[in-house]
Amino acid sequence: MNRNSLAQTAEKLLPVLKEESLSTDRNAVFPEAGLQALRETGLLGLLVPEEYGGLGADLDGLVQVAGQLAGGCLSTAMIWAMHCQQSDAVVRFASSELKEQLLPRIARGDVYLASVTSEPGKGGHLLTGEAALQHEVDTLTLHRAAPVVTGGRHADGFLITMRASPEAPANQVTLVYADRDQLDITARGEWDTLGMRGTESLGFELTGTIPASQTVGEPGGFQRIAVESMAPVGHLAWAACWLGAARAALGGLVELIRSPGRPSTMDVRSELVSERLARIRMDLELVSAYLHRVRDEVMELRAAGESLGSTPVQIHLNTLKVTAAELTFRAVDRMVQLAGLRIGYNRQSPLPLERHLRDLRSASLNYANDRLLVVNGALTLMDRTVRLA
Ligand SMILES: Cc1cc2nc3c(=O)[nH]c(=O)nc-3n(C[C@H](O)[C@H](O)[C@H](O)COP(=O)(O)OP(=O)(O)OC[C@H]3O[C@@H](n4cnc5c(N)ncnc54)[C@H](O)[C@@H]3O)c2cc1C
User: Fold this and answer.
1) What pLDDT does 122 receive?
2) Where in the chain is the domain with CATH 2.40.110.10?
3) 176 lines ligand 1 (CB under 6 A)
4) pLDDT by residue (tens digit) across 184-218?
5) Contacts of 37 (CB under 8 A, 6+ apart)
6) 124 touches ligand 1 (CB under 6 Å)
7) 85 within ligand 1 shell (Cβ under 6 A)
8) Nearest-angstrom CA–CA distance, 67 and 329
9) Contacting residues for 101 by C-beta, under 8 A, at least 6 apart
10) Hey, which of 76, 118, 375 would you mutate to test ligand 1's pocket, going by the most ligand atoms within 8 Å of its Cβ?
11) Is 114-216 a CATH 2.40.110.10 domain?
């Protein structure tokens, strides 16, 4: 599907997403109508190659659609972005057998994928695992505690990181796929958070036995999947979602300021208002430029069959995630200040600025910025050429 058709498809979903965002945010429940629309439009198969029935889009399409959907509802956009992140890993690393079984189902909209990487004890650390896979002749048995699983009650399949075997060290991690009906799933706890309430990211206990062919990539080789697929696609898609939400918020604010409905105390000819608007716009411009630069870098390397694991590229991808998280939140925080109590801070406001503020506060926690900054500091000492993006 070309860029324009993708944009039109995503655009048509926005009324459903906007309407549903009110109740999903209020009740902290999953956007079922939004997911159904994503299934029906084929967008769940965005990154699935056409030979498997998918839309065969690239990372440009992913970034574009993520930004559009986030203008309707950031929770739904992130649910979809995380699903795409998982489907990219399947496309690039699953065996032909698993791809033939799974990708046509994703393309038809029958399989929405959830991600299980966080784990009690290790917290968010992506590249280690505690619970171990038990190997039998042709099968693998898992018992996994999963404290935060977006959409876990609604997912049709799960990509799960596990310690490779009971004897393996924590950093030998295997990624496996499990269909919902291959698992016993018990929900744990509640999802009652400040923002991103519509992701309904509950905790779960997952138990089951799967064929060994449902290993994604090499046993113990999850690090390569993280470097080549899960982290880069995640950082690009998340940044696009956060930017899309902040951009929609600014669009709404600009409309309001230009209308007679603006707060009567707001003087649009004031230089203070202009300066504040300029700073908001600058933050979004910087994220947008960096996002598109890093997207191009990743696409060029992928097209050339090269790894994304070099030190400068890793620094760029981590910088994108941290910068997008910080600047989009700061921009919306400034919008709240500019719009004031009635329009900016009030849940009954015609502009959902307070929801955007709560949602975007999660961006620096959703894979902790601190972790990425610690990594980037160490990587900076390794890149003597200081190869900037
Ligand atoms: C909306 C949302 C949806 C999510 N969906 C999923 C999902 O579907 N599947 C999934 O597996 N997970 C999911 N997560 C979890 C997410 O990926 C992170 O793993 C989780 O938010 C990290 O939780 P934490 O902050 O408690 O843990 P940690 O990352 O362990 O961090 C704990 C604290 O330690 C600090 N810290 C950590 N490392 C360092 C360091 N080296 N130096 C200094 N400080 C450090 C952090 O800043 C933080 O303050 C989701 C999170 C959010 C917000």
Assistant:
1) 84
2) 114-216
3) no
4) 999 999 999 999 999 999 999 999 999 999 999 99
5) 13, 16, 17
6) yes
7) no
8) 15
9) none
10) 118
11) yes
Every domain range in the chain assigned CATH 1.20.140.10: 222-382
The pair of three-digit structure tokens given for residue 335, joined into one six-digit string:
């919008």
Closest ligand 1 atom to 365 CA: 21
CB 128 less than 6 A from any atom of ligand 1: no
Predicted confidence (pLDDT) per residue in 129-176, tens digit:
999 999 999 999 999 999 999 999 999 999 999 999 999 999 999 999
Superfamily designation of domain 222-382: Butyryl-CoA Dehydrogenase, subunit A, domain 3 (1.20.140.10)
Quick check: 47 and 54 in contact, CB under 8 A?
yes
Tell me which residue of 217, 205, 250, 200 sits closest to 352, measured CA to CA.
Answer: 250
Are the beta carbons of 334 and 320 closer than 8 angstroms? no
pTM score, whole prediction: 0.97
Topology of domain 3-111, CATH: Butyryl-Coa Dehydrogenase, subunit A; domain 1 (1.10.540)
Pairing of strands 157-163, 113-116: parallel
Does ligand 1 lie within 6 Å of residue 148's CB atom? yes
In a mutational test of the pocket of ligand 1, which residue from 370, 372, 375, 376 has the highest number of ligand atoms less than 8 Å from its CB? 370
Q: Can you tell me the distance from the alpha carbon of 163 to that of 222, in angstroms, rounded to the nearest whole number? A: 10
Residue nearest to atom 14 of ligand 1 (CA): 148
Note the pLDDT tens digit of each residue in 246-303. 999 999 999 999 998 888 888 889 999 999 999 999 999 999 999 999 999 999 999 9
What are residue 247's DSSP bridge partners?
Answer: none
Ordered alpha helix ranges (H), the chain:
3-27, 32-41, 59-72, 74-93, 96-107, 222-225, 231-258, 271-303, 311-340, 353-361, 369-382
How high does pLDDT run on average in the chain? 97
Mean local confidence (pLDDT), 6-23: 97
Summarised one tens digit per residue, pLDDT across range 332-358 is 999 999 999 999 999 999 999 999 999
The CATH 1.10.540.10 domain(s) of the chain lie at 3-111
